[in-house]
Amino acid sequence: MASAPPPQTLPVKADLSAWLGVAAGAIGSLMATLDISIVNASLPTIQGEIGASSTEGTWLATAYLVAEIIIIPLTGWLARVFGLRRFLIAAAALFTGFSIVCGLSTSLTMMIIGRVGQGFTGGAMIPTAMTIIATRLPKSQQPIGTAIFGLTVIMGPVMGPLAGGWLTENFSWHYAFFINVPICVMLITFLLVGLPKGQMKLDELVNADWLGVLGMVLGLGGLTVVLEEGHREEWFQSAYILKLSAVTLLGFSLIAAGQLYAKQPVIKLALLRNREFAAVFVLGLILGSVMFGSAYVIPQFLASIADYNAMQAGQIVFLSGIPAMMMMPFFPILVARVDLRVMVGIGMILLALSCYLDVTLTAESRGGEFVVTQLLRGLGTVFCMMFLNQAAISSVSVDDAGDASGLFNAARNLGGSIGLAIIATLQDGRTEFHRWTIHSSLSANGDALQNWVAQQAALYGGGDDGIAIAMRTLDGKVSRDALVMAFNDEFMALTIAIMTVTPLVLLLRPLPKGYHAKAAH
User: What angle, rounded to 10 degrees, do the helices at 371-394 and 275-304 form?
Assistant: First the structure.
């Protein structure tokens, strides 16, 4: 983690260069979170142009997410070794280069290389944004910086599908990557002006926790791929998944060895022995599951049931970002006057309510059905995100705040991966279950069913061909209803998961009196 200067070195009021540094951190974290999902809307088009199958195309999102999950916990150590300013400038420059690689890709291999590079360099810009706030703003103005950072982290995932869909439909999918170039130029300029030069501590490379670093790559990388690919590969019936699971186990063993033998572990998992921080970590996992899970389920429903295109579905997903934009100005007031346990509890209840209200979807449901629930989900997300971040870094010492922030951010993304894996498995299993349940409830000799089949067959010319078409139509209607019921089951599963962990809010502690919204030091 990057060391913060003594509080007395900070001015009473931040100057322009300090705010430019904060803006740089916000821009970097926005790009990093937005690029997770920006390819989702244009995925079919990209797959066609680079010659990838639908299964291979999912790696465009997976590769980015795997790299980002690996790098986030390592960011504090890397910033300390190379200096925050130098590290972030290098990350932004490399992110630009890898974005260009993605935009110019003509093959799946080239695209995956670009996406992995984007994930590693973009992920480094998420937790460091909080470090900039801590080191460049006085405590009285840190709530404003924290609110700006929270807005970018929440808005990134919901803006991704909308921005990608708009760029693809109005220009080309290539611009979903090329748009990063001018933004990164501005970002690097702000970093040069807004951050002071720092010293490198290359000697830490010699005594680094290399077992932990290698373990992070193998463990977190392997786990993420297992979760992403397990369903498609039929889990442990696949030799591929078994091998990846072995790699994952080896990685976590190396992390454990590093915790025991390294003088300074690359990430302090010992923080999880802190009951309050452990509660924050688990709540972060569920928060990530809801954020990424709902952003996946809703476009899937609208595309398969309501026949929405990517742009239309992206607009519905974007609704959850509106409460975030409206509430951010009030965050400094709320954090000073309201117990964080109350705010997190309200946020969890709102998330549970938003998912529960979506369990009554029908085959006639359209985007309008999600307006209220998306607004509730966005409001719950902003309460949970902002106050859990405060709880994470206030539950540990100042020296451990950087590691706590990294673990919390990693928990959110890892929770997203776990949630998506469970949802994908649940969707297929419950769709098949409901399909056969509906079929078994239909009486082949019932007058109503026979009359319906006869009417449909007559529309298609009668005879055996007409009956065959009528039976396929019936199966299609049954399959559609079964899929809708599976979507309802997914929202119910999210509801149960949220309510199960909500009591952990009681383990959190209120912020100290006079506490200003701190950032990770």
Answer: 160
